[in-house]
Prior knowledge:
There is one protein chain. By secondary structure, the chain is α+β, with helices and mostly antiparallel strands. It folds into two domains: 23-89 and 122-183, no CATH class; 93-120 and 185-209. 45% of the residues lie in helices and 29% in strands. It contains seven helices and eight strands. An eight-stranded mixed beta sheet has the order 5-4-3-2-1-8-6-7, covered by helices on one side. A hairpin with a 5-residue loop joins strand 3 and strand 4 (63-68). The longest helix has 26 residues, at 185-210. The N and C termini lie far apart (88 Å).
Amino acid sequence: MSWAVGACSFALLLLVVVALWPLRLDVSGKARGNPDGSWVVAGGVTLGVVGAAFVWARGLSPHVSVLVFGQKLLWKPQWTGNWKTRATRPIPARVKAASARLWSRMDPLALGLKLLDERRHVRLRYLVVDLAYGFRDPLLTGRLVGALSVLSAVLPPPVEIRQAPRWDFEDGWDVGVDARAVLRPWLVALDILIYVVRQLSHERHQDRGRRPEPAPGGAGDLQERDDRGGAAAGR
Length: 235
């Protein structure tokens, strides 16, 4: 019996350590759009010992690779030529109704702000976005330069936008993203779950408060109705 208690204690301690141990999240990606309308996107995400890399180009199916401890898994998502058709299949009515009820009680903006406010368990080290772009209309390029300059001035220090406008009078763009953050994913998920449950409970309580109260109909009202009915019958 003592060994069972020891095993449970060790498992509980291990779960606590895993939940509190911070993990490093690295994100990198590149995307390019050419004047002829072709484009290509490639990137990778690493969280702890798990990573994923993807490549996608116009006219080609996306390719995704999953790595654990730096070793590529044999399993790969299968993308066929009709993946768009499969993605646009009608959603079952039961799932659609449940999703509608959930989002009717949940404010997407508040949920997004909650995700951005997860500073206790998420710490952004840096986020660098490199932009190189140009358009046939030089006025459009100039407007975008001004808008991005204003946006860069109000961003917090960990976030940086570096732009290199092109004036070659051709439509094209290049985007590069490089980011690193330290987070405790299990605690983040727990906080978000608690927030969602509280919001749903609050909305359910408000719905009950907005329900109309039943019309007053006591014993005195019933007696008065009976008296009126008897008088009408006597006439």
